Amino acid sequence: ELLFEATQITGDSSYHKLAVTHANTTLKNHFRSDNSCYHVVDYDTLTFQPRLKVTHQGIADESSWTRGQSWAIYGFTMAYRFTKDPNYLERAKATATFFLNHKNLPEDGIPYWDFDDPNIPDAPRDVSAGAICASALIELYPLTKDSTYLTYSEKVVRNVKSKEYILPANLDAPFILNHSTGNWPKDDEVDEPIVYADYYFLETLL
After folding, report:
1. Residue 1: which of 18, 11, 12 has the closest Cα?
2. Residue, of 186 and 117, whose pLDDT is higher
3. Rounded distance, CA 87 to CA 91, Å?
4. pLDDT tens digits, residue range 141-159?
């Protein structure tokens, strides 16, 4: 998004071209047949071909780390905004379908940190994944007229405004929402407030 915006601000098309190249490379190599995505693709620096496909912050390389799925929906919705490339719109829709129809998406819409955690329903949630997805689907809805997108976003907003997720107003901390998961494999920021949950929650409200 920074690269797309840089071209709009400066008139230098090289930034836009870099963003499109990155989006196309991601489109080609990051996604599985079920429309979920990997967290990281490691490219060989000589052949430029994928060397490894891994999920550093998920429970396993082939698992569906929920914030990664949300980034994919958000990223390709945003890329469509700047390019109007229908391939980006289709990718956002396909991964949104995977996310919204997943059997392990909780009833309140706030995802577990990884759809494939064997400890579900006792696994930690990731409010940030829900907030990113909710913001993306607000933008995706008028492009598709798919009411399930709006329904999900409204559900997330309604449920994170509850006492279960909103931090107390008298808490001396610069956060709004609780229960995000940063990096579970490294036991880092598990079931805690995280700034990008707040950012995308506020973006969804706006």
Report:
1. 18
2. 117
3. 6
4. 999 999 999 999 999 999 9
3-state secondary structure of 160: helix
Residue bearing tokens 């405004």: 161
Residues 59, 89: Cα–Cα separation, whole Å: 28
pLDDT digits (tens, 9 = 90+) for 160-181: 999 899 988 777 778 999 999 9
Model's pTM, two decimal places? 0.95
Supply the DSSP string of 56-77, one letter for each residue.
TTSSSTTS-BHHHHHHHHHHHH
Calpha distance 20→111 (Å, rounded): 30
DSSP string computed for 6-31? HHHHH--HHHHHHHHHHHHHHHHHSB
| Inter-residue contact 98 to 34 (CB < 8 Å) | yes
